Amino acid sequence: MQTIINLFKEKFQKKERISVVTCYDASFAKIISEIEMDCILVGDSLGMVFQGNNSTMPVTLEEMIYHTKAVKRGAPNKFIICDLPFLSYQISVEQGVSTGGIAIKETGCDAVKLEGATEIALQTIRQLTEIGVPVMGHLGLTPQSYQVLGGYKVQGKDEKTADKILQDAIALEKAGAFSIVLEMLPESLGEKITNSISIPTIGIGAGRHTSGQVLVINDLLGVSINFKPKFLKQFADLYSITKQALSTYNKEVKEGIFPGEDNVFK
Ligand code: KIV
């Protein structure tokens, strides 16, 4: 049986790029399940794009479990990673291990993701991996710490912070992480980290040389029109399509065009 760790390892060894997309509900998960996307991340970005908060910090473990279960129902055969939300793993190793274990046990996801490389995070990764829970790391712009990082900004622009992120990546690999998300880094640093470790890096705004890429589904589909960072490519314009469809529905209801002959039970 293929596991997420095997798939990532295989692709990494063959130098094949890994594709990851976020997803929060069963309908989109079903669409993703029909294409060759390697993996779904149920990101705590749902706190912003789904719940409308201005950060990921309010998201709870219960909410992550709820959305991950929905995604699992929509895409039962895809590899799914559940993001551990703010304050569900940072307090102690025991807390982190318990949270990671509960996430995988209750949702049936394949792995969990946590941000940063503090001593607690590293030990949590070590213990989760030991008890059988694959862990993905996340470095660079770690949105749960956006306040202390000075906002949603490119990280590692000077030598000192760049070296710290590189050392953190090496530490995450040593602790047992099977992959690391690198968010908003200069391309050269994304490449350097990727060449310095032997687990795949998944970039979001970290340039072209990471082992794979991840994007937030709402952003790449063009649902959120006000979020257009340099690293984002919009592959569709769902905002306009959705607005147009809803306006037409509204008009047809008001003009008595919908429901039409085809939409009624005789
Ligand atoms: O929460 C999320 O969606 C993420 C990705 C942006 C990597 O962490």
Structural commentary:
- This protein has 266 residues and is of the alpha/beta class.
- It has two domains: 4-235, TIM Barrel (Alpha-Beta Barrel); 239-266, no CATH class.
- It is built from ten helices and eight strands.
- Strands 1-2-3-4-5-6-7-8 form an eight-stranded parallel barrel, surrounded by six helices.
- Helix 6 (119-131) links the parallel strand 4 (111-113) and strand 5.
- The protein is globular and about 65 Å long.
- Bound molecules: 3-methyl-2-oxobutanoic acid.
- 3-methyl-2-oxobutanoic acid binds at residues 22, 41, 43-45, 83, 138, 181, 183, 204, 214, 216.
Question: Concise description?
Answer:
It contains ten helices and eight strands. With 266 residues, the chain is an alpha/beta fold.
CATH class of the largest domain: Alpha Beta
Our Rg estimate from Cα atoms comes to 20 Å
SSE order? HEHEHHEHEHEHEHEEHH
**Termini gap:** 51 Å
User: If helices are DSSP runs of H or I spanning 4 or more residues, what is the number of helices?
Assistant: 10
Q: Which percent bin holds the helix content?
A: 40-55%
Largest pleated sheet: 8 strands, parallel, barrel
Strands, count = 8
CATH architecture of the largest domain: Alpha-Beta Barrel
What small molecules does the structure contain? 3-methyl-2-oxobutanoic acid
